[in-house]
Design goal:
By secondary structure, the protein is an all-alpha fold. It has 2 domains: 212 residues, no CATH class; 240 residues, no CATH class. It is built from 23 helices and no strands. Helix 4 crosses helix 8, helix 15 runs antiparallel to helix 17 and helix 18 packs parallel to helix 22.
Amino acid sequence: MLTLFKHQFKENWRAKMWRNNIAVNIFVALLVLYIAGSFALIGYASDLILKELFPGVPVEYAFSGLLLYYVIGDILVRYIFSNLPVMSAWPYLHLPISKKKVAHHVLFRMLFNVYNFLPLLVLVPFTVKGVLPTYGIQTSMLWGIGIYLIVIGNSYLGGFIKRLSHMNSKWLFVGVLLYATLILLDRFDIISLITISTYTFTFFLDYPWFSLLLILYPLVFYFANYNFLLHHTYLDAVPKDAFKLGDIPALSFLDKLGETGNYMMLEAKMIIRNKRTRGMLLMIPLGVAYGLIFVLNDQYADSYGMFLFTGVFMCGIFMINYGQFILSWEGAYIDGIFSQNIDLKKYYKAKLWLINGVTTLCYLMSLLYGFIDIKFIAINTAMYLYCIGIGSVIMLGFSVYNRRKMELNASAYSWQGVGKSQLLVGLPLFSLPYMIFAPFWAFGAYENGLIAIGACSLLSLSLTNVWIKEIAEKITSTKYEIAETFRES
């Protein structure tokens, strides 16, 4: 076991990332220090913040009432952003090393995670300032240990859910359904999460020794992950729902669209057959559900500005995640594409049509918000037209300058291949709707502002062939430079 950790340390120390991009490493280090400092400051001032937010309520009760929300959010964040250290186990699978040791190594590595460290910066100061003066050192320590055991349990639960969803995507939809159900039940006061949380975690203050029973939470999911790794970690392991080669029956109509339709079919096969691109499809329900955070918040009831943002995000979630990497997805074989007699205008038009088709699906799902308030139908319709008329063109235009290969078998939440251009593309994409809407907003003519956004989008949509021609000519004029950059990346 110790040898495996030594190997992991050497792998990280010798990584190319640490030898190059010194400026990037310095920036990341400063960012980590800033985030850690922010959490520590929140932890130190948490008792004062809670007194301000919940006047007349003991701070330990207020803190306990928010813990269940933290647990739910923490599991979601871990699922989306944390990486599973499974790849590090593969080099050992063909060696005479017990698979049990390899599995334990992978699971112990999950403990050394920033998501397990940051909560300590809040929990420890609050326990010292908010709990210790009232309940004494023994109760405070036991309660704090119990809460941190939940944090560790979240790590293993999030990893287990992620592993299940990689094997069978239905688990992701089950998770999304559960989350949406909890949000709606709490929002409409059918259940009260804050009340459940308060009673649960103050129980451990009244009976502190029961906090030690919380160790069962991480242990159960540790061994659930352990059992999963033993049965599914093989060099030739293939998920049960892995897509089989062949045509996609549901998209057989694309054959009628000629050469462009064939390119669309090839693109759809590439998306479905590879883990990273397939994961982006699975993120669509999460993106559409994202709007609930603002729609169900009375603070944003009349905030058209916020709803413009959520409209673009919900309708364009696939466009944003996929469209700006159009060349990067094919970076590994870009030479083969450029060496063939391919009509780049039809090639890019196929990609545009496919992106707009998925955007249309997202829009139809977003229309469900009309049951909450009819105005969301008008807002989301305007933002849908913006996404297919202007947003998709912006994405394809910027994709020409993104020349980093994307690893198709990486996690859907991997940052590999993401560069500074991805940060810049958000500026025009999310700013343009506000620039069009602002003059009408100033005079309170919100509906006219939405009409103006839709009209500009339809005008741009009518010029699709012009935009495609410009993009194709740009690629043609720089294809040798593009190909050389991809070879070096």
